[in-house]
Automatic annotation (TrEMBL):
This is Uncharacterized protein. It comes from Paramuricea clavata (Red gorgonian). The lineage of its organism: Eukaryota, Metazoa, Cnidaria, Anthozoa, Octocorallia. It comes from the Eukaryota.
Length: 332
């Protein structure tokens, strides 16, 4: 049975079992959500819920392996790289109802030790699946420090390219796993999570393990695919000239999700508080961290104008730069 929401979108009711309920996360825009898998009669689908208060009830039904019916969920096509698949979106209108009898049984969907080839990731796996793979590291990038909104702390990550005889895939490894992984070495990886960022990829989890193994042979096709996935070297150019326009802005940061709130120049100087609707918080300005972004327009000695050049944060936080000389920004 289907109905329509107040916005006119088609809604559906779904029978099944819950699996792999995630923790509550925050999107880059500060929206809080969690996801899970729902096992239907003939397939499993990803579901995303934007009502964090529903998580405890859904997690309880997962642990009890109870058959359930989801009311008023919105079927939606997946992102660009999975156009033929559908996921469910839960909102405040969606409800969870326990059903006493189900026409099909609960099934174990975790398969944490299922070892797949790289090509299997593209052919059979969906976002959120936990898998293992035996593959060779054909490229290892530099370590980066990023802020985790869900964990509310800084973490170290490193991107790598994995390949076997069937294909290649990008993976991200974290924290203590990084020093144990070497370029051009082969490993058995377990507890990797299938993700989707521009294309299908793998992501290390807190339970990820890596064990060195015999060398994994590559095919001509997988070697070529590996080269395609390696990031291209960025080209740089030194510019000497005169800055003719400057745009530097200071932003307060939400203490919960670390997203930018409002420009310090645009905010009410007399107000003590800033309201941030995505996190539903009202925060004292004096307790907030801030960041700076800036850009300049430069005209070189020949009169050629270089469009807006983004300034590194450490440069924008200093006095306004007047140009580049020998590859370095020069300041007043």
């Amino acid at each position: 049975m289907a109905s329509r929401s107040s916005e006119g979108k088609k809604l559906a009711n779904v029978d099944g079992y819950f699996h792999a309920v995630s923790e509550v996360k925050s999107s880059p825009s500060g929206v809080r959500y969690f996801d899970f898998k729902i096992q239907e009669r003939d397939e499993k689908r990803r579901a995303v819920c934007f009502s964090p208060e529903k998580r405890d009830a859904i997690k309880e039904k997962e642990e009890c392996k109870s058959p359930v019916r989801l009311l008023n969920v919105s079927p939606q096509k997946r992102k660009l790289f999975e156009p033929d698949s559908t996921e469910y979106k839960l909102t405040n209108q969606s409800k969870i109802m326990v059903t006493k009898n189900s026409t099909f049984p609960w099934a174990d969907m975790s398969e944490p030790n299922k070892q797949l080839t790289v090509q299997d990731k593209y052919d059979t796996m969906t976002t959120g699946d936990i898998v293992s793979v035996k593959a060779k590291v054909v490229w290892k990038g530099e370590m980066e420090t990023v802020y985790s909104r869900s964990m509310r702390k800084e973490l170290t990550k490193c991107e790598i390219v994995l390949a076997d005889s069937t294909g290649a895939i990008i993976a991200t490894i974290w924290e203590d796993t990084i020093p144990h992984v070497c370029d051009q070495k082969s490993y058995v990886w377990s507890n990797l999570k299938v993700g989707l960022y521009k294309r299908k990829c793998l992501n290390g989890t807190k339970d990820c393990t890596v064990t060195i193994c015999e060398d994994v042979s590559l095919s001509v096709e997988s070697s070529a695919a590996s080269e395609q996935l390696k990031p291209k070297k960025k080209e740089t150019q030194d510019v000497t000239g005169r800055i003719v326009a400057v745009d530097v802005n200071k932003f307060f940061l939400c203490m919960n999700c670390k997203n930018g709130l409002a420009s310090a120049d645009d905010s009410d100087d007399d107000g003590e508080f800033i309201d941030y609707s995505p996190c539903k918080l009202r925060m004292l300005k004096e307790n907030l961290d801030s960041t700076v972004s800036g850009s300049v327009i430069i005209v070189d000695e020949s009169g050629e104008k270089f469009g807006s050049v983004l300034l590194p944060r450490e440069c924008a936080e200093r006095d306004v730069p007047i140009g580049r000389r020998n590859g370095k920004l020069q300041y007043f």
